[in-house]
Specification:
heterodimer; A: 111 residues; mainly beta; six-stranded mixed β-sheet; five-stranded antiparallel β-sheet; 0% helix; B: 117 residues; four-stranded antiparallel β-sheet; 11 strands
């Protein structure tokens, strides 16, 4: 069964304190791994798509990496405005267009 | 990416009434839109896939007669919650698929908070 597990469930950082969020997945024939940011009361905002192991993508303080079993979202020198829930989702070969979602990591960055 | 809007952003209704939520793709002609529901502290749950000009495809356990979906144009899909009850209170979010191909990305609207009294 396709599955996505995110850890930690919650993370509190000081401003400037770098860290990583984990997304472990099990899927038949990965067609894409997606990272989204969700602010309270808002819809998810697209961040990255990764398609194959070894791929990396970067945007400002965020960098996403992918292996055959997991993805990391690295946050370098975070700022309070990076506080949000970060969601990971995968699309497999057998799921048509359906995304399988993790529960997210709630990140709080203190000034 | 695609820009998606939803209306209303928040709605409160009485039990037994029907509520319509609109999802618009503002800069992209979307043959397919997706409708999700999200409860507090839970992941997004796909309710149905809305196809322009044809019937929606509902996920297992989602009542198609209760959650009516209409995708009449390439820029508009509507979700109508019929005879709403307090357990239907939730955050409803739509998304647009960027291409329909293997490298499709979904772009989400801002969501609609429904509270049924």
């Amino acid at each position: 069964e396709d599955q996505v597990t995110q850890s930690p469930e919650a993370l509190r950082l000081q401003e400037g304190e770098s860290s990583s969020l984990n997304c472990s997945y099990t899927v038949s024939g990965l067609r894409g791994l997606f990272w989204y940011r969700q602010d309270p009361g808002k819809g998810p905002e697209f961040l990255f798509t990764l398609y194959s192991a070894g791929e990396e993508k970067e945007k400002e303080r965020l960098k996403a990496t992918l292996t055959k079993k997991e993805s990391f979202l690295h946050i370098t020198a975070p700022k309070p405005e990076d506080s949000a829930t970060y969601l990971c989702a995968v699309k497999g070969a057998g799921n048509n267009r359906k995304l399988i979602w993790g529960l997210g990591t709630s990140l709080a960055v203190n000034p | 990416g695609a820009v998606v809007s939803q209306h209303p952003s928040r709605v409160i209704c009485k039990s037994g009434t029907s509520v319509k939520i609109e999802c618009r793709s503002l800069d992209f002609q979307a043959t397919t839109m997706f409708w999700y529901r999200q409860f507090p502290k839970q992941s997004l749950m796909l309710m149905a896939t809305s196809n322009e000009g044809s019937k929606a495809t509902y996920e297992q356990g989602v009542e198609k007669d209760k959650f009516l979906i209409n995708h009449a144009s390439l820029t508009l899909s509507t979700l109508t919650v019929t005879s709403a009850h307090p357990e239907d209170s939730s955050f409803y979010i739509c998304s647009v698929g960027s291409s329909g191909g293997p490298q499709e990305t979904q772009y989400f609207g801002p969501g609609t908070r429904l509270l049924v009294l």
